[in-house]
Amino acid sequence: MALPFEELDFGPPDYREMLPATLAKNYGQWKYHELLEPGVFKHVSKTGDEVYTIRTGAPKFIASSTIRQLCDIADKYCESSLRFTSRHSIDWIVPKKEDVDKLKEEVEGLGLPVGGTGDSMHSIVQCTGWVHCHTPATDSPGIAKAVCDELFEEFKADNLPSRLNIAVSGCLNMCGAVHCSDIALLGMHRVPPQVDDDLVKACEIPSLIAACPTYAIKPKMMKNPDGSITKSITINGEKCMYCGICYGLCPGLPLADAKNDGISIWVGGKVSNTRSGPAFSRLAIPFIPNNPPRWPETIAMVKKIVEAWKADARPHERMGEWIERIGWPAFFKKTGIDFTEKHIDDYIFNIRDMNVGTRVRGSDL
User: How far is it, in rounded angstroms, from Cα 167 to Cα 169?
Assistant: First the structure.
């Protein structure tokens, strides 16, 4: 017998049911928290208990055998519990001080670096890219790996002006949270899907037309030599926003284009409401060609932006706050990025961020 909806739609389990024993015992009684070193927190309770959190990086694609190794470590030191953060790091909750160094040694032996806390580069967020999606213009996991390799020491240290959040998304659907990161790498399509009439004629064309969010798809009738009619579609390139929904419904509309697809870089976003409040990322570089497997041009520009911010920002000043203080003209000058007409934001409600024409915050560019 089927269960009623009220019994099925119960939502996620209560997090308090899954707390480690030490955290459950001291729930709501914490006296203070302290960052001892990059990746290691100390929590002191009013009861006198001390608990330690060790944060490590983790692969975004992970084998079940590796997960079993992680669980064995959690059984040994963490009261059989561990936590994956929203940025795909791992938080190990260690109730005994003498186990902190032991756990660090074991996880580092697995290749998992300790860090990603405080004023450091936190774990990079990414979408699945070419591995498991049909809309990306670039390979998010590959770029994330290349960026992490280049800035690896910034993850393990605690010497940046503030935290650095980097995100990678393969397309404008932005599964990688690039709209609110200090540095965001976004895959860019520049041409609409190519229509393969032989495949499209086998698709459900009315549903295909209805699925387009910008009404860029229209029906097309083709007359064959024998006088019969074949139904297909045509795409208005000026309306297409390269979302890839049509390709998900019909394999005759491939969106990927090796020649025209590439990467854009955005800066200055954040989720935090401290000081200046949350902010969206803004365009820094409109287009960099795809150059797998290491994307050297993209990595060089990311490193240049990080180094400019690191050298010039004040303590605790996020990327966007630094840019807001020095102004966009100074940002382009310090990073060596060329200013183009594509940087001009013509959004009707964006008067507070730019003046008319190419004058940005009072300075000629």
Answer: 7
Nearest to 183 by CA among 126, 260, 262, 113: 126
Instruction: Say how far apart CA 20 and CA 81 lie, in whole Å.
Output: 6
The total of other beta-carbon atoms located within 10 Å of residue 92's CB is 27
Q: Is the pTM of this model over 0.85?
A: yes
Cβ count within 10 A of residue 291: 14
Sign of CA dihedral 275, 280, 284, 290: positive
List the one residue out of 56, 55, 59, 34 whose CA is nearest residue 44: 34
DSSP state of 10: -
The pLDDT tens digits for 247-302 are 989 999 999 998 999 999 999 999 988 888 889 999 999 999 999 999 999 999 99
List, in order of start, the domains of the chain with CATH numbers: 5-109 (3.30.70.3340), 129-187+259-364 (3.30.413.10), 197-249 (3.30.70.20)
Show the low-confidence residues of the chain (pLDDT under 50): 352-365
